[in-house]
Design goal:
Helix content is 28%, strand content 21%. It has 239 residues and is α/β, with parallel strands linked by helices. Helix 1 (12-18) runs parallel beside helix 7, helix 2 packs across helix 3 and helix 5 packs across helix 6 (200-208).
Length: 239
């Protein structure tokens, strides 16, 4: 690999790519979750200050290929990446795993945003949120008669009508079944991440006839090359 790569991480597959990068390359993380300590490549933690700050870093660090492997819902970061690469005239590639598709027996209801989601939740009493930390901003809005279970990377304080569970995937179907049963979950709230590691929750919802409120995927920018699998991207960057 003669070029110097900046890999923007965010999905599980990004770490698999980072493990194949040598010391001249950079793996960039936002700082949420654990920082790997066993990589040959450099690891950078923290933001850049928008597209302009990222473009400045690309120039100063001599980056010749930017790879966006952020979460499919991190739309602003993806836009910044595409804009910054264009500004310094280097290619921007993206790893974008396919969205999940509803199967027979699924009751999926797509919602556009938070207001739409809250309205769709009105008939339910025991939702399980798997949206990350965003619902923590809305704990004071929980209606009487609802109890929320939030699952995020790290446990933190909820309130009298919300418990926050700290857990990291991959999740196993037996554990998901136990969670749904123990907490009497009657609706699942999820992003459509397309991740194999978190898919068992959808299987359990299907088994139990529990509706799934799916937050609609954002529109992501056009890039020079797009890959659905880490293996395909790695094959493209190998000499």
């Amino acid at each position: 690999m003669s070029r110097r790569i900046l890999l923007l991480g965010g999905v599980t597959e990004a770490l698999a790519i980072a493990r194949q990068l040598g010391p001249e390359h950079v793996y960039s993380l936002a700082g949420i979750g654990r920082v790997p300590q066993d990589l040959a490549c450099q690891v950078r933690v923290g933001g850049y200050g928008g597209a302009e700050g990222l473009a400045r870093y690309l120039r100063e660090a001599g980056i010749s290929l930017l790879i966006d492997a952020t979460h499919p819902y991190a739309a602003q970061i993806s836009r910044n990446a595409a804009d910054a690469a264009s500004a310094v005239d280097i290619p921007c590639w993206a790893l974008r795993r396919p969205a999940w598709q509803a199967q027979a027996g699924d009751d999926w209801r797509e919602v556009q945003g938070w207001a739409d989601l809250i309205a769709a939740l009105e008939p339910f009493k025991r939702p399980l949120f798997t949206l990350g930390r965003e619902p923590l901003q809305h704990l004071e809005e929980i209606p009487l008669g609802q109890f929320w279970t939030l699952r995020a990377l790290e446990a933190c304080a909820g309130n009298e009508r919300c418990e926050v569970i700290g857990a990291r995937g991959p999740f196993h179907i037996e554990d998901e079944r136990a969670l749904f049963e123990r907490r009497a979950i009657d609706v699942l709230v999820s992003k459509n991440s397309g991740s194999v590691a978190t898919e068992p929750k959808l299987e359990v919802a299907r088994e139990r006839g529990v509706p799934v409120l799916i937050l609609k995927r954002p529109v992501l920018p056009t890039v020079d090359r797009c890959f659905e699998r880490a293996e395909s991207l790695l094959a493209a960057i190998r000499p």
